[in-house]
Fold these 4 entries.
Entry 1:
Amino acid sequence: MVNREAKKTSFIPGIEGLRTLSVLGVILFHLWPKIFSGGFSGVTVFFVVSGFLMTSIVLRDLATFGHLRLKRFYLRRFWRLYPAFVVMILLTTALLFFFFPAGLFGIRGTLISNLFYVNNWYQILHQVSYFAAGAHWSVFTHLWSLSVEAQFYLIWPLMITAILYLADKKWQFSLLIPAFLALISSFLLAVFYSPASTNRAYYGTDSRVFSFIIGGMAAILITLLRSQACPEILRRFQKLLTKYSVWIISVSFSGTLILFVIANGVQAWVYDFGMLLLSIFTALLIYYFVMLPKNHFNLIMGNRFFRYIGSRSYSIYLYQLPVFVILEEIFRNFSPLVHFWVALFSILLIMLFADLSYRWIEMPFRHGMIHMTRQSLMSLKNVLTALLIALALTGTFLGFISNDATHSKSADQLRRHLKSESKKISRQNSQAVSARQSAVSSQSAKSSQSSAAQGQDQQLAGIFQTSSENIAKVRQLSVTAIGDSVLLDVGPDLQMAMPKAIVNARIGRHTQEAIDSLQTLKDEKKLDPIILMVIGTNGEISADNIQQVRHIAGNRQVFWVNSFSGGKPWEGPNNSLLSNFDKQDSNLHVIDWYSGAHAHPEWFAPDGVHPQRAGNRAMTTMIINSIADSVK
């Protein structure tokens, strides 16, 4: 009976609808992260659906054959997923070589970790943030989720077989053990979350596996309800679910859509309960798709359009970010209107790649390419496929042998540049300390140096396009500057104009880390009368963060450079919050870097976040003018 029922539910139209909404959510998030900040939640829905389908396959095997055909299970998953995955990687690498060679630098580790399905751990180890990656994601950033999924496929069949063995006499174990494991995993998600970095929580297999398990629990529950020996307590539970189906479906679906809109990948509540809640909503919807197949909602979610998109959702997911990143790079200096049309065109291009991948790669490998006839191998489709693969292999080969000759576009070169700037800042910090200690005390000494100082002021005024009076005002000021890698870039120019400034900057720093450093300096009595904050690029600034800075600063003047993070979800909220506090506190001065940066894309390195020379000097000028205007 279990086998017969399994065949009946081998295709569930409503699930294609869930896949469609999920992949559309991810696409919209990658296109317009400020507007569709919760679109990344589509990955959680994918995880639940995968958990349900994989558990259903395992249960079907156990019911039909009395054991799990493990080799067959792994081979089917391999041929279902790996060929299209590898072709996408090869083709994308080739396209990078021809259209965006800077994207090839540092790609070896990414390629290897993806091919072995451990990319999520690679991104954790290399601190590759999904939500603080600057203006552009990498073409392969999204593949972390496929690594998590592959690891689940490897472990879960063995685990579920063991769980069902333990539950042979006590059916409750078949639900209680997975529920316990899911709770542990969701607890780890909340524990691993940190405002400073979401990487460990977001990418970790252990902290994300609960979504798969909850999907698996839906499959186990449905199997129990359909068995002739179904316990009475589950029968009563089923009646309740049926009685209130309209309400539960409405709440689950609307809750899913709301989370797709309001969730933000850097906010604590998403990790505390948001993803868990979304997983439960998805599992409930799947339950109704299976148990009430003629429900109107199931029929709506299984419409032709959703079935078409859903069937190709895997290939759509594979190609969406490579297409976005490469086209964005090609058209990066065009107007917003052009970017809008490029976004629409990119969606069409993704659909084209996905359809070709589905027809020529997914389906043939899924049904066994070994049985293809000689005639089909010589068809036009396969000739074109061969050409695409040849192009991909050529590009991959060229990508591997290419050297690091592409100037500042290289991510490796950016890291080297920031390291070099850090050394400059360290040397200048030492000089600033010496300058403070050896300040001239006699008025005559000051007079003898005034002529030289005026000449230097005029020279610096020319460099920074400001007045010599402003330079003279800020040159002797003691300033504590705290920030992230953007301050590392700006630091040398800042210390050229303000030689007594002490710069404390670090790559990847988040707001709370900067505040902790600020508190340490205050405790050590090293905090200057003027504080400069260049922080907010890598994540959210909260009202509590600003209050902490105000408390630490006391009567000191705080100058805070607002955020320009290439359209990341926290950019707008950060700047609005700073603007509101600026109006309330006379000691807080917000420097509007965002407006100038937004109007001058030529100021930036290819990541769209770190300023180059013109951008460094523009920010330094804004800082000089703001401090000079505010300090008497």
Entry 2:
Amino acid sequence: MRGVRRTAGGRRGAGLKIVVISLTRAVERRQRISADLERLGLDFELRDAIDGRNIPPEYEALIDRAGSRRDGRVMRMGSIANWLTQRQVLSDMVENGPEMMTVLEDDADFAPEFPAVLDALERTGTPFGIVFLHRGPRRRPFVPHVALETGHRLGWVRWSHFGSQGYTITRQAARRFLEANPLVRTGIDRALARYWHHGQTTYCLRPAVVLHRRETEGTPSLIREAPVVEWSDPLWRLRRGWFYGKEGVRKRVAFAGLAIRAFGPVKGAIQVLRPPGSFR
């Protein structure tokens, strides 16, 4: 995978690297996000993404079509290509470093505090594996845990986060994430959020410092331009329901354990049981 390094004054140290994933045909997106990061004074690297409209045959062995069919889930080839690209980025991180990386998709916008938050994550004494920098599902309650020196809070979305527009990951977490996901089934956004599966300490950030232009400006999704593989057998809906039912139970059990370990039995149980409207 080709990468182009952009330098904007050396605001990032050796400990954290910024990588932007972008299709070569997405010229306007590449230009815009490059200009935004340069304006923030951040060094970064552009990585050419695999195009879901034409995935090279050498990647076929990494695509778990049987697993997707067994789970009753459609295969969006744009999402598959995105995961394959990010898999390459994370594999390179595991093999060559650095110890911490921020991965961005090319339809991301940034709050002015974005550079300060990255600095704070490098210096924080709170251990983490993955920190989602974008907001994620708006209707899911946020449970704060610790504060960064910028005043931003690390916490959890009940019951899990979603999306991959921007996240920071450690080298160790990348290694274990890849070990837990040797093959690609659907979207990496769901795989990253499944902390009960990959076992890494995962937080989301509030307020978010990465914004999704699809939400703020209605930017169309390039992922949805790629083909979709659907299953036509009569049992696929049952398999789909069984998969989501299992996932629903697993993430609720995992969140309950997370809350109890963080806040103690009583306060943790309150976080699990309190109604969504009572969160702020």
Entry 3:
Amino acid sequence: MTLIQIVSGFVAIGLLVYLIAALFNPEDFS
């Protein structure tokens, strides 16, 4: 894997975790 693929993978995982957290804790992401 190239560095770009690794970085983009971390970004995608981070966005998914953020969206899931926002769904379960909407009051924290107002």
Entry 4:
Amino acid sequence: MNIIYLTTSFPRFSGDYAGVFVYDLAKSLVDDGVCISVVAPHTERLAYREDMAGIDTHRFRYFYPTAQQKLAYGAGIPTNLRRSWLARLQIPLFLLSFFLKGFRLAKRGQVIHAHWIEPGFLGLLLARILKRPLVVSVHRFNPMGQVGRLLYRWVLPQADYILFNSSYTQRRCLEYLSVKKSGIVPPGINLEKFPLKWNLPQQKDTCLKVFALGSLLPVKGFIHLVRAMPQVLEIHPQCQFIIGGQGPEREALLTEAEKLGVAHHLQLLGRVPTEDVPKWMCEADVFVLSSVPHASGDNEALGMVLVEAMACGTPCVASRTGGIVDVVDDCVNGFLVSPGDSGELADRIIQLLHDESMREQMGQAGREKVEKRFALDVIAHQVEDIYTQLCT
């Protein structure tokens, strides 16, 4: 099969976060004999075409000089549009360049697979012109503004198959509009990159570690983890809290920790390279994702960091919100807590830190769930089956 991927985000270099799950899926399918060609935005100092581990990658330039291409990557298209008038100015050129590059490749493709709604718009145009089936992956359903609502209402009902990353995303969409066919297919995880911690050489360390990872944004709820620290430290005074990620909340977290007198127990790592994530997950005794709903009503769509932690055998404490409930089974592979409740969050962290056998039992249950539900080869086979159905 020859599949064309349309995406606004794709890794630019080794260790890049941008669209890494799109790359991982494409790589797994290529390893299984599927031919994948990717169309993605260009950025400065990148090749316009390259072979990325068997993935035929094409990048379209949409502005000159290339250093002034402001729409894609960085903080992401929505944020870039808010911050830069030049990014807004580049929208027509971006869409035209994307369409032309996609058209040249899609002529030889059997299925067009668009990741996110914006490429879905172009994918639908190409699918209708070239009479190809269209698959759209919806990684988050949040139709903001009139243009956003129009895109969702026009693209999704006409797509041949919709892949939702979680039951939450699917439910939100189907409450809003109807689609032809859909299924829940989360991003997959390469288990070779995330070893089970008990299979690694054990280091003697009396310091218990609580780890959290994500963009330092209010919706990630890191402030509630910081507010849970005093209660945890009363019981486990040697515990260290480690948060990885970048974002505007950094100073607020440090200020709150200083105010609570726990700053010396808090370590902010900044950006964590992709290749270092498994190490931090394995070293952690507990992983925390304390997300809270956005003011718009939107929630955490899935929480892949939870899947990564569980793959390493690390039990999780996470908010009972959005797609997180697809990942964490309460009292089985971790605990679910009320969003924004620092007291309940602290209680569950304490419970896990206090009981090593519980941590190991929940960690093993988490690994087993990841192997059955989120392993990359499992996800790739599901997606390949959908492509096959659409080609017959």
